[in-house]
Structure formats: C-alpha cells, structure tokens
Specification:
single chain; 207 residues; mainly alpha; 8 helices
Length: 207
C-alpha cells in the first residue's frame, strides 16, 4: 500500500497540478483558456509545465544538493519555508512574463486562472509560515474549486465527468498522504479547506 501511496503522491505532486489542470481544460473545455487559440493551447500547456513544474523542480534539486532541504519530501514545516518562498516567486514571475509578453489582462480567462493559481501558491506559503498543512490536499482541492464553477458554465456537460474524476482523485490523494503518515487528518483538512476556498472565491470574484 505504501508503494502505491508514494506513486500517487509523485504522480499528483502539487507542482504538476497546474499543468494537469490546463491540459484538462485544453482537452475538455478550450473556451476556459480564451484568448489562446485552440491550435496553440498545447504549446501553452507545455509553457505552463516549464514554469510551474520544471523550473521549481530544478531549484528544489539544487536546494537538496546545497543542504537547504534534507529531502524532497520536506517533512518539517520549517524546512518548507525557503523552497515555498522561492516557488512563489517563480510562479509570480512566470505570470508576469505571460502578462508582459502577451498583454493578457483581467478580461482574459487564462490570465484569471493564472492569478488564482498564484493565489493558491501564496496561500500555501503563508500557511506554511505557521502550520504544516498538506499541500497535496490544498492543490487538488484548488482544482475542485476551479472546476466546480466551470462545470456549471460548460452547458454541454463536457466538464462533468472530469470534475467527478478530479473529486475521486482528491479523495485518493488525501488517503495516500494519510497512509504514508505524511500528514495528520487535521493537516489534510486544513489544506483541503484552504485550497478549495481560495480557488472557489477567486473564481467567483474574477469570473
């Protein structure tokens, strides 16, 4: 069971969640990524993967090499603060780059989604300053907070099954983190509430 739980934790690592979310929307609900044209949305998803996963992962590797963190799991709250701060800066810099290069604004769906993801990362950092919440739980619950309003907006029902699958995945990931004793039930709950509340509120305000 632990091997499966570890595999799920890696497969649905928080740094992979933004890429997965944008990839899902590109496949099932392309209007959510307006004004990016359908034929270029895959390239945008790749760009998101570089900014939100590859660059942070490389920096975590260097943090590990220089002893800033003891392991990639970052078991203690204190150990997470510097990497989380750096990741927050990277995400914000990536969003600014998108704004500067494309001139997307608050009227554009894709920029709104990037802002919500930035808010989730920022909330993760601020929570970590005082409490070790489950970031796996926060990230996947953030996806649910984004997908729920979009599911209602997709009148053709194209996001209904993806939302149900995401809900199932969320429960599975939370169970996996408990199985590994990586978090207590309270830490899972705090992460879940923080992620869903942040994302859902962002969707209500921006959309």
């Amino acid at each position: 069971m632990n091997t499966l739980a570890k595999g799920l934790s890696y497969l649905f690592h928080p740094l992979l969640i933004p890429t997965g979310l944008f990839g899902l929307l590109a496949i099932y609900f392309p209007p959510a990524l307006y004004p990016i044209k359908m034929e270029t949305q895959q390239h945008f998803v790749l760009f998101v993967g570089v900014i939100t996963f590859l660059l942070p992962a490389v920096n975590l590797f260097f943090f590990r090499q220089f002893g800033v963190i003891k392991s990639f799991s970052m078991a203690s709250r204190e150990e997470r603060i510097k990497p989380f701060l750096f990741i927050t800066i990277l995400y914000m810099a990536g969003t600014f780059m998108v704004y500067y290069k494309t001139h997307f604004g608050l009227q554009d769906n894709v920029f709104k989604l990037l802002l919500i993801i930035n808010a989730l990362v920022l909330v993760s950092f601020f929570i970590t300053l005082v409490y070790k919440a489950s970031i796996h739980s926060l990230a996947i619950s953030g996806v649910l907070g984004i997908l729920l309003p979009l599911t209602k907006a997709a009148e053709d029902g194209s996001l209904f099954m993806p939302f149900l699958i995401a809900l199932l995945v969320a429960g599975t990931i939370m169970s996996a983190r408990l199985q590994l004793n990586a978090h207590t039930p309270r830490q899972i709950l705090v992460g879940g509430i923080a992620g869903f509340t942040t994302a859902f509120t962002g969707m209500l305000i921006l959309f």
